[in-house]
């Protein structure tokens, strides 16, 4: 399963790079896309994601925060809010 995950991510990154080369903005959203990757492959994917992030916006959604801390970038978190905040939104 890990290899299929990685290939899927690489294909999405390639399409995003093609869009950027054509002058279009591109964003990749990865939602726990690398959960089946072993440590060695995860490390390689982080190198690739960092390289891609120079041209393409990469958004990673994950429940494995510590693993992805080494990826860099800005980390965002959702916090519980009150009902008053929902009404004003």
Question: Can you characterise this structure?
Answer:
49% of the residues lie in helices and 11% in strands. It has helices at 2-21, 39-52, 65-68, 83-88, and strands at residues 27-31, 57-61. With 89 residues, the chain is mainly alpha-helical. The chain is globular, with a radius of gyration of 15 Å.
Primary descriptors:
4 helices; 89 residues; two-stranded parallel sheet; single chain; mainly alpha
Helices, by number, come to 4
Mean pLDDT: 84
Poorly predicted ranges: none
N-to-C span: 40 Å
Main sheet strand line-up: 1-2
Shape: globular
**SSE class:** mainly alpha
What is the H/E string? HEHEHH
Oligomer: single chain
Number of strands: 2
Strand content: 5-15%
Using only CA atoms, what is the Rg? 15 Å
Largest sheet: 2 strands, parallel
Helix content: 40-55%
Summarize the structure.
The chain has 89 residues and is mainly α. It has four helices and two strands. It has helices at 2-21, 39-52, 65-68, 83-88, and strands spanning 27-31, 57-61.
Topology:
Elements lengths: L1 H20 L5 E5 L7 H14 L4 E5 L3 H4 L14 H6 L1
Parallel strand pairs: 1-2
């Amino acid at each position: 399963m890990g290899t299929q995950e990685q290939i899927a991510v690489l294909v999405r990154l390639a399409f995003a790079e093609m869009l950027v080369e054509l002058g279009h903005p591109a964003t990749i959203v990865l939602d726990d896309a690398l959960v089946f990757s072993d440590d060695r492959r995860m490390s390689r994917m982080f190198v690739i994601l960092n390289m891609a992030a120079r041209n393409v916006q990469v958004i990673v959604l994950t429940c494995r925060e510590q693993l992805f801390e080494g990826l860099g970038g800005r980390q965002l978190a959702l916090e519980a809010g009150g009902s008053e905040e929902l009404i004003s939104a």
